Fold this protein.
Amino acid sequence: MTNEKSILVIGLDPTLIDFSHPDYAATGMDAAKVLAGLKSSEDELTRLGYSVQMCLTDFGETAEAVVRNQLRQRRFDCILIGAGIRTIPSNFILFERLVNVVHEHAPQAKLCFNTKPSDTAEAVQRWL
């Protein structure tokens, strides 16, 4: 890999998640596990030669603006929207809104999706 490839990883700020809520309880995760997984995937992508920017959002109050701001700061080759946004039914509209922000502000970027923090690098490598 080359340092030229830049990745934006979009996910929910795990400190805002109520892991006792039924949508999250079944995941077996908590904020500390999610943060550790994010750090590990960022480290792995960096080791592979990618430039990685993490973008953690809320549940929609400012999420679109936060992502839009990241996309205006630099060009990304690949954008990953995490499973916490994508697979939780109550986050469906947030996922849809973020996909449209990415489509509008980074139409050249490949999109990829993980199933958990530990397969983030695999998701990126499918497209880059």
The chain has six helices and four strands.
